[in-house]
């Protein structure tokens, strides 16, 4: 039996359906990321877990026990809020110990636990600092330490890095991920950022329209998306149209066919082909590949993206070490040894 279970959770606000039957299972000491665009229902689901919202239907279970009827304070869940919710008139140590003190912990026991948390989040020596005297990343670690201090069974994190600038966000993400691993706590982390989800999640539930569109590892979502929506949300996607011959190959142009992967039987008929930039290469246009014209190149530090407009008008993004000049004629073909381009039945989802 899974440690934490959500079973058929439904929630509406008026006529707006926010959650339409969410079922998820989380193992102990696992970090599950709820990923999705704004309005997908991920924060509402987190609030239902915390007890701040009540579902119209469904169960929340911990170790087989239904906790849906318990108030937030009795669920023994820790919460890290998007805006930290730290008390500006209290010191770092007082903020960390606030929840413990509210439960009656005091004296040496309180001081000892606060000291443990300061060491855990690498803020020893900061206990007397005022909140305004520490950085945003340090404030986030104070919020994490405060949530962990009472030893909760589950930790809930609602967009915990959204208020930080990109450089600080990456460093703080590494620090928070390390703390979660060391503590070994079950965590539910909400974000709309793909890179953040991939970096911290043992598994990822991609939500949209109040439903789980795909649940799996980062590799599952990126390399084996179950729909065009998933493919577009978790990475750069180029889309081509072709016709499957029922043998696992798709004809994209006269004399040009590619091997493809898909769920179920090999496609026969019109399909949309997903091509990731790193799974294609540029070749001589006379090599029997799809032929197009380089429209622009983008250097992004770790790689260069080349945008190619094919004869039919489709745009394909390819990573390349050799960067051709704009308006150059090139060929595009799958890169051998990589996952095959993925085929979806035409009309299987919005892109």
What does this structure look like?
With 351 residues, this protein is an alpha+beta fold. It has two domains: 4-229, 3-Layer(aba) Sandwich (Rossmann fold); 236-345, OB fold (Dihydrolipoamide Acetyltransferase, E2P) (Beta Barrel). The chain is built from nine helices and 20 strands. The chain has helices spanning 42-50, 92-96, 98-102, 107-120, 136-148, 166-183, 194-200, 218-223, 228-233; strands at residues 4-13, 16-26, 31-35, 57-62, 65-66, 77-80, 154-158, 186-191, 203-208, 211-216, 238-245, 249-253, 256-259, 268-275, 280-283, 290-299, 304-310, 315-319, 329-334, 342-345. The longest helix is centred in the middle third of the chain and has 18 residues, at 166-183. The radius of gyration is 24 Å and the shape is elongated. It starts with a strand and ends in a 6-residue tail after the last strand.
Record keyword descriptors for this entry.
single chain; 351 residues; alpha+beta; Rossmann fold; OB fold (Dihydrolipoamide Acetyltransferase, E2P); 2 domains; six-stranded mixed beta sheet; five-stranded antiparallel beta sheet; 20 strands; elongated
What does the main sheet amount to?
Answer: 6 strands, mixed
Low-confidence stretches: none
What proportion strand? 25-35%
Q: What do we call the CATH topology of the largest domain?
A: Rossmann fold
How many beta-strand runs?
A: 20
Which CATH first-tier class of the largest domain would you pick? Alpha Beta
Name the helicity range.
10-25%
Give the CATH H-level superfamily of the largest domain: P-loop containing nucleotide triphosphate hydrolases
CATH architecture of the largest domain: 3-Layer(aba) Sandwich
Which structural class is indicated by helix and strand composition?
alpha+beta
Arithmetic mean of pLDDT: 92
